[in-house]
Each structure stands twice: as structure tokens, then as C-alpha cells.
Design brief:
The complex is a heterodimer. Chain A is of the alpha+beta class. Helices cover 34% and strands 41% of the residues of chain A. Chain A has two domains: 50 residues; 93 residues, Immunoglobulins (Immunoglobulin-like, Sandwich). In chain A, 21% of the residues are buried. Chain B folds into two domains: 49 residues; 91 residues, Immunoglobulin-like. Classes of the chains: A alpha+beta, B alpha+beta.
Chain lengths: 145, 143
């Protein structure tokens, strides 16, 4: 009787320790993952807080009676660096292709974005919306000359 | 004496079997809980890493032949599944039919949601809900 109780007790104790270890291991892994991502989320929030840019110049020169080339110069007025390939430019609400003269826009530096053969006549007014990779945006209107 | 030994052996085997069964059942239950915990952890991680913006110019939504185009930019750190099975689009609170131009959006990418709906001139609101429940809206006007 005494030996049976001890044997049963030992089995239950070993099983409990194994289960507790397994559960603890999983819990720690999950907490680590979530805290790592929470850190990334906070960094993203801080990044957005410290990010800003300005459209310092916008120029639209006609290249044919119905088309024009657009040049937008941006200044990074924040303290983070932007990836120029990840900007989005919308002209009159439509996403347009562009080229940039630099790949990275560092704090207090300028970048020139060009978009070609957009539709518009001399004297027509349009709107350009520039969106950075983290979602911050600037809008400005311009006239084709 | 022999009978006493036999009953001790039976009692011992019964105890071992009972303890093993209890341990096995507990282990399976805990394992199920752990799998569920892992699943939830992954879902939370994915939710935290996902972000997007509707980047349209609110007063100039591109429109052709009754189709409105909305641009979605992935501003998070994970790939967003971008099909009409993984995304829900509401306009003024009602679910609308739409198509997308790509199947997934990598961080920094822009995708199009093409909505087929007759919108009266005036103010409207589009709400985009992702597969993980993250939603964003944009108030816009139609001339």
C-alpha cells in the first residue's frame, strides 16, 4: 500500500514538473515575441513622431500642348531618414511613377522627385500629394507653366 | 501471505495506471492550452506588426466608369494579404464589392482597391478592414 502511494505520487510529480516546464517555456517564448513586437511598434510610433518633410518647391513645365513634367523638391525636416523608393506621389488623386535623385533622404537634406508626361495644359492647376513610407503626407497645389 | 502479495501487486498496478492516466489527461489538456496560447501569441504579434494607410487625396478620388480607386499603403512591418477574401471594404457602413490589383502588399508597397459602387455627390467614408481586424477609414468627397 505504502509503495503504491509513493509510486503514484512520484509519477504525478514527474508529470507535473514536465508539464510546468513545457508551459513555462511556451509562455516565456510568447512573452518574448510579443514584447519584441511591442518594442518595434513603439519604435515605429517614435519614428513617426520624429519624421517630417516639407515640399519646398514644386515645378510643372509643359513639354507638349497637353502634357507636362513635374519636379518636386522635398526637405527632410525631421530627425529620421526616409527611403526615397518608398514614397508615393499622387497627382490629382492618381498615383504616378517617379524617379528620385537620391535613394535616401537624410535629415535636413533635399531630394528631387521627377514625374514625366503628366496630363495638363499650360495654366491648369493641379494638386500633388506626397506620402512617405510611414504614412505621413504633404499636399500642395501647382500650376503648369 | 500469497494472497496479500497479490492484492499489493494489484493495488500497485492500479495506482500506477491511475496516476499515469491522470498525468496523460493533464498533459494533453495543457498541450492544447499551449497550442492555443501560441496561436494567440502569433495573432497578437502579427496584429502589432501590421499597419496601413488609405493614402488617397480625399477630395480627388480617381473614378472611371463607376469604379472608384482607393490606394492602400503598407506602413507596417509584415506582408498584408490583399485580396477580396482577406479584406472587407465598407462605404458609409455598407459592405461593397471590390477587386484588388495585387495579391499581397510588402512593407512600403501601394495597392489599389477598385470599388464598384454608385456614389452620390457629397461626403462619404470608406473603411478598410484587414484579415486580422485592423481597420482604417478615410472621409472623402465626390464632386
Amino acid at each position: 500500500m505504502g509503495f503504491s502511494t509513493v509510486a503514484g505520487f512520484v509519477i504525478v510529480v514527474i508529470a507535473s514538473i514536465t508539464i510546468a516546464g513545457y508551459l513555462l517555456h511556451t509562455l516565456i517564448d510568447q512573452i518574448k515575441d510579443v514584447s519584441e513586437l511591442s518594442k518595434i511598434e513603439n519604435e515605429m510610433k517614435i519614428d513617426i513622431k520624429n519624421s517630417d518633410f516639407e515640399i519646398v518647391k514644386i515645378e510643372a513645365l509643359n513639354t507638349s500642348p497637353t502634357t507636362y513634367d513635374l519636379t518636386i523638391i522635398l526637405k527632410n525636416t525631421g530627425s529620421t531618414t526616409f527611403d526615397c523608393e518608398k514614397f508615393s506621389i499622387l497627382v490629382d488623386g492618381v498615383l504616378v511613377n517617379y524617379t528620385a535623385n537620391v535613394s535616401k533622404l537624410y535629415p535636413l537634406e533635399y531630394a528631387e522627385f521627377k514625374s514625366f508626361n503628366l496630363e495638363g495644359t499650360v495654366g491648369s492647376t493641379h494638386r500633388a500629394l506626397v506620402v512617405a513610407d510611414n504614412g505621413i503626407r504633404e499636399i500642395k497645389s501647382f500650376t503648369v507653366t | 501471505m500469497a494472497g496479500e502479495s497479490a492484492s499489493h501487486i494489484i493495488l500497485f498496478i492500479t495506482t500506477v495506471l491511475l496516476a499515469s492516466s491522470v498525468s496523460a489527461v493533464t498533459f494533453v489538456t495543457i498541450q492544447k492550452m499551449t497550442i492555443d496560447l501560441e496561436f494567440r501569441g502569433k495573432a497578437i504579434s502579427e496584429y502589432l506588426a501590421t499597419d496601413f494607410e488609405i493614402i488617397n487625396d480625399p477630395s480627388m478620388i480617381p473614378q472611371t466608369d463607376g469604379k472608384y480607386i482607393f490606394y492602400i499603403k503598407n506602413t507596417g512591418n509584415t506582408i498584408i494579404p490583399f485580396t477580396n477574401e482577406t479584406i472587407t471594404v465598407l462605404i458609409n457602413g455598407s459592405v461593397v464589392q471590390f477587386t484588388t490589383n495585387v495579391y499581397s502588399l510588402k512593407p512600403g508597397d501601394v495597392g489599389e482597391i477598385i470599388v464598384y459602387d454608385d456614389l452620390n455627390s457629397g461626403n462619404h467614408r470608406i473603411t478598410v478592414i484587414l484579415h486580422n481586424g485592423l481597420s482604417k477609414y478615410l472621409d472623402f468627397k465626390v464632386e
